[in-house]
Automatic annotation (TrEMBL):
The lineage of its organism: Bacteria, Pseudomonadati, Bacteroidota, Flavobacteriia, Flavobacteriales. The keyword Hydrolase applies. InterPro entries: Peptidase_M20, Peptidase_M20_dimer, Peptidase_M20C. Pfam families: M20_dimer, Peptidase_M20. Residues 211-295 form the Peptidase M20 dimerisation domain. Keywords: Hydrolase. It comes from Leeuwenhoekiella parthenopeia. Gene3D superfamilies: Zn peptidases. The keyword Hydrolase applies. This is Aminoacyl-histidine dipeptidase.
Length: 487
C-alpha cells in the first residue's frame, strides 16, 4: 500500500519513476539489470538511445518548439546505489526491489539504503524525457554507472560522445545548495598474511560487538565526527593483549569504502584467570566511549559476550603490529580548507576491516580537493600499515572539480533560485566525490553545476529524502530549463 501512496506523491512523474527504478537491483559494479531497464525506457519513448562501451546509458531528446536555439543540456545522474542494510534486516539486494515507506515529510526504506542517492536525480531525468508538455532545450541524458565504488562510468566515457555544452549534475543533497566543486579521492588497500596458531589451553572465548552507530556518507558526513566502528572496536583491543593475554581469531567490520562503518565485531580469547578483570575493564571503557559520543551517537551499543573458544588465533607478532597500525591510522578530518569556510579539504575513512583465515585486509578511502594534500594523507595511511609489514596498494584515483565562480549556468541557477524562493542559495564546493571533475577532463569546455533535493543519511539504512524538497527541486529544474542560454 505504501508504494502506491509513494506513486501518488507530488510531483507524480518523479515519484512514479523513482518507484519503478527502485524495483530494479542496481548495486555498483552489478548494474546489468538497471542498464537494460534504462535502455528499454529510452527506446520505448522512441528517443535516440545507446549504451557506451563501459555501460553508461545516453538518451537524447530534441528541444521543444521555441527552444531550438538554446544550448544542449546534459542532465546527468548515476544509476548505481550503495547497498547497506541493518544486521537484523533480511534482504537480498541482488533480487529484491527496495521496500519504501513514508514517515512524515520523508520517504525512506525498511532497514536498507533507499537509493535516493542518486535515484531521485535519475527519476527526475526520466520524468523530463517522457513528458510531452514540459518546455526544454535539447536534452542529452547521461546515466553513468559505478559512481559509488570507483566512478568507472565517468572515467570510461570517451571524448566527443556528448554533444551538450552545459552539464547539470543532479547529485547534491541539500536543496538550497548549488555545487561548484568537489573532492577527488583514492582507494587504499592494506593486506598481509599471517600464520594461524592453535589456541592455547587456559583461554576463554569472547565476541565483542560495536553497533548502533549512524554511519553515513564518508564525504558529506565526515565533518560530523561520527563514530567509526572499526576504530572504536580497536580501542578495546589495544591494551588487552598485554594485560589479559588477548589473542585475535577474527575481525569483521564496516563495508563499503564510501560509508562510515556502523558495525564491527571481533572474536578473540583471553587468559581465563583474568576474565573478571577483563570484563570490568571492557564495561568501564564502554561507558567512557558512550559518554564521549552521547550527543553524536545516542544509539551506540557495545556488547561483550562469552562464546566458544576459537580453534586458531593470529600469530602474536603480527597481531601486535596490526592493532598498533589500526590505532595509528588516521580516520576522519585531516585538514579543513583554508579558502572555503566549513569545507573539509582532506579526510580518510577506515572503511572495512577483515581478519580471518590467515589474511588481513583493510580498505580506506582518502578524499581531498587538493591533490598534494590527498597524497600527503595517503602516504600517512600507507606508512602506518607498512611499518607493520603490510603491503599497501593505491587504486581508483579520481580528480576533484575546481570551482568556476564565473560560470554562466551558475548565474542562471542563482538568479532562478532567488526568484523562486526569495533568498540566496548556498553556492559551495563539497567534500563528496562528484563525477563532474572526471567528466571535465574529457569535456573541459563544458559548463557544469550540481544540485538536488534534500537527502539525509546517504549510504546508510537511515537514508531518507524530503518529500517537500523534491517538490521544490522539481520546480527549480523546470524553471532552469526554460532559461538555458542561447547557443
Amino acid at each position: 500500500m505504501t508504494h502506491a501512496e509513494i506513486r501518488r506523491l507530488e510531483p507524480q512523474p518523479v515519484w512514479k519513476n523513482f518507484a519503478d527504478l527502485n524495483a530494479v537491483p542496481r548495486a555498483s559494479k552489478h548494474e546489468e539489470q538497471v542498464i537494460a531497464f534504462m535502455k528499454a525506457f529510452g527506446e520505448n519513448l522512441k528517443l535516440e538511445t545507446f549504451v557506451d562501451e563501459v555501460g553508461n546509458v545516453i538518451i537524447r531528446k530534441p528541444a521543444t518548439p521555441g527552444l531550438e536555439d538554446r544550448k544542449m543540456v546534459v542532465l546527468q545522474s548515476h544509476l548505481d546505489m550503495v547497498h547497506q542494510k541493518n544486521n537484523n534486516t533480511q534482504f537480498d539486494f541482488a533480487k529484491e526491489g527496495i521496500k519504501m515507506k513514508i514517515e512524515g515529510d520523508w520517504v525512506k526504506a525498511e532497514g536498507t539504503t533507499l537509493g535516493a542517492d542518486n535515484g531521485m536525480g535519475v527519476a527526475t531525468i526520466m520524468a523530463l524525457l517522457e513528458s510531452t508538455t514540459i518546455p526544454h532545450p535539447a536534452i542529452e541524458a547521461l546515466f553513468t554507472i559505478d559512481e559509488e565504488t570507483g566512478m568507472t562510468g565517468a572515467m570510461g566515457l570517451k571524448p566527443r560522445v556528448l554533444k551538450g555544452a552545459i552539464l547539470l549534475n543532479l547529485d547534491t543533497e541539500e536543496d538550497d545548495e548549488i555545487g561548484v566543486g568537489c573532492a577527488g579521492g583514492i582507494d587504499i588497500t592494506a593486506t598481509r598474511n599471517y600464520r594461524q596458531e592453535e589456541t592455547e589451553p587456559g583461554k576463554t572465548g569472547y565476541r565483542l560487538t560495536v553497533n548502533g552507530l549512524q554511519g553515513g556518507h564518508s564525504g558529506m558526513d565526515i565533518i560530523k565526527g561520527l563514530g567509526n566502528a572499526n576504530k572504536l572496536l580497536n580501542r578495546f583491543l589495544t591494551d588487552s593483549f598485554e594485560n589479559y593475554g588477548l589473542r585475535i581469531s577474527e575481525i569483521d567490520g564496516g563495508g563499503l569504502r564510501n560509508a562510515i562503518p556502523r558495525e564491527a565485531t571481533a572474536i578473540f580469547c583471553i587468559d581465563s584467570v583474568h576474565a573478571e578483570a577483563f570484563q570490568a575493564d571492557v564495561a568501564e571503557l564502554a561507558e567512557a566511549i558512550k559518554a564521549e559520543y552521547q550527543n553524536l551517537e545516542p544509539n551506540l551499543n557495545i556488547a561483550l559476550e562469552a562464546t566458544n573458544l576459537p580453534e586458531v588465533v593470529m600469530e602474536l607478532g603480527v597481531q601486535e603490529g596490526f592493532i598498533k597500525a589500526m590505532q595509528a591510522v588516521w580516520n576522519g578530518v585531516y585538514r579543513m580548507s583554508p579558502d572555503i569556510e566549513n569545507l573539509v579539504e582532506t579526510s580518510n575513512n577506515v572503511a572495512r576491516v577483515r581478519v580471518a583465515g590467515g589474511a588481513i585486509e583493510v580498505l580506506c578511502l582518502t578524499r581531498s580537493s587538493v591533490e598534494s594534500s590527498r597524497t600527503d594523507l595517503a602516504n600517512t595511511v600507507r606508512s602506518a600499515f607498512e611499518l607493520t609489514g603490510c603491503e599497501v596498494h593505491f587504486s581508483g584515483a579520481y580528480p576533484g572539480w575546481k570551482p568556476n565562480m564565473n560560470s554562466p549556468i551558475l548565474k542562471v541557477l542563482v538568479d532562478k533560485y532567488k526568484k523562486i524562493n526569495n533568498h540566496e542559495p548556498h553556492v559551495a564546493a563539497c567534500h563528496a566525490g562528484l563525477e563532474c571533475g572526471i567528466l571535465g577532463q574529457n569535456y573541459p569546455e563544458m559548463d557544469m553545476v550540481s544540485f538536488g533535493p534534500t537527502i539525509r543519511g546517504a549510504h546508510s539504512p537511515d537514508e531518507r529524502v524530503s518529500i517537500s524538497s523534491v517538490q521544490k527541486f522539481w520546480t527549480f529544474v523546470l524553471e532552469i530549463l526554460k532559461d538555458i542560454p542561447k547557443a
